[in-house]
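Notebook, student rotation project (T.W.).
Task set for the rotation: take a protein with a known small-molecule partner, predict the structure of the complex, and write up what can be learned from the model alone. Partner molecule chosen: zinc ion. Sequence and SMILES entered below by T.W., checked by me.
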Amino acid sequence: MNEPTPIRGRCLCGAVEFQLTPPTDFVAHCHCQSCRLAHASAVTTWTSVSLDRFHLSTGEELLRWYRSSACIEWGFCSICGSSMLYRAVQEGHPESPRLNCMYVAVGSLIDPIDQAPRVHVSFEESVSWLHYGDELPKHRAKTDEEVEDPIDSQETVASDLT
Ligand SMILES: [Zn+2]
Ligand SMILES: [Zn+2]
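Predicted structure of the complex:
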C-alpha cells in the first residue's frame, strides 16, 4: 500500500519544518481577532490533522509556544517569528478545539493542500477593508450559523462618499 505523500510546511527562515500526512480534516478561513493579531493578517486559513499525522521534521528546539489562554497555545519560530501552529492544551475553550490534533496555518505549507477551503468562520469579526468574492458560507464564530455578508453595508457607505 502506498503511503500518502506528505504535505510539507515551514517557517520563513526554514529553521522549523514539518509535515502533515493527508487527508487533512478541514480547511477554513478564520476571521477572528485572535488569528488576525497572531498572524498580523486579515484572515488565517487553517487546516488540522490528528497528532499522529503531524511530524516536526526540523527545529523542534526552536519552536516556541505562546499560551494566549488556559486552553490555547500558538506555535511560532523563535528565529523568524512565523506563526504556524495552534493547539488546545486543555478542555474548556468555548469553541472546543480538539485536544488530539494540530491546527496548521495553510499559509505555512509549501506543498499543495489536499482539499479546498469550504467555509469562512468567525466572519462577524472580519475586517472591513478586504472583500471575498467566493460563494463559501460565512459563519458566526465556529458555528454553523450564517452571518450576513457586511459587504452590502460597506457598499452603501462607499456610495455615500461619491
Ligand atoms: Zn523561522
Ligand atoms: Zn481565528
